[in-house]
Known about the structure:
The chain is α/β, with parallel strands linked by helices. It has helices spanning 25-34, 50-57, 78-82, 93-101, 136-143, 148-160, 200-211, and strands at residues 11-16, 38-41, 63-65, 110-113, 118-122, 166-170, 215-221, 239-241, 247-250, 257-260, 263-274, 277-286, 292-300.
Amino acid sequence: MTSQKTLLRTLKIAVVGDIHDQWEEDDGIALKHLGVDLVLFVGDFGNESVELVRKIASLDIPKAAVMGNHDAWYTATEWGRRKCPYDRTKEDWVQKQLDLLGEAHVGYGKLDLPSFNLTVVGGRPFSWGGPEWKFADICRERYGVNDLEESAARISAEAKKATYETVIFLGHNGPSGLGDRAEDPCGKDWYPIGGDYGDPDLASAISQSLTAGKIIPLVTFGHMHHTLRHTKKMLRKRVFKSPEGTIYLNAASVPRIKENGRDKQRTFAIVSLEEGTVSQIAQVWVGNGFSLVSEEILYQQPRPLVQTA
């Protein structure tokens, strides 16, 4: 019989934000040095960057991924198709990416991870964010999903089928409801400034899954970059904790690789999961020789007060 227990040991999860063509062999080696158990990719690998996705697919660490809007850049819109660098009558780079990732791609799907007593459920693939559904045609043609209500139902159905009661939601864009300021996790940072640019279908699916009794310690995503356009005085708010105890993490640190002469640094968000609860999230930068250059604690689980006699 399949175990329904929640996580019994500390898991170390790396969340890789929007890559935008910045992925190298050393990233996989860095993850090994960091000792991660699971890697989550929030999409935007590049503009239908098949060869980069091939490298991601070859990573020999348990992984799950969802596709971002840039991963259908030349396919999903007329203006993108006009700039397409390949013959779309002979090739389909979107499908090539999906084929390479195989079961690791969880958009409108799920991945059960028996070693961790954990299921990863994916949100809407190729999401652009916001209450108006951009890239609707690609979801209709490839997944048979026609509107946001059907999209929410599709995501919820996957969560319902999850083998394990502990579920992590993985999206390209985050859910609506995390604030409407430009600097909020899914806040709109271009004209007109402000407004909630999250995905309402993902928010609905998460709510339905919580009502159904699923344990959701983490919802992670990217799309809305940490660096803001309207101000350089602050970064986007990266972590939000809901009243239910779910931690929402925006992992879109862009650019994720920085070079200064011979010095090259690469970043990952590292999530520690203890007994099905997020205990810590840190943004780490790994430098030359795979040494840890810096670690910024984004979230630390409050420790219970010790009562004295």
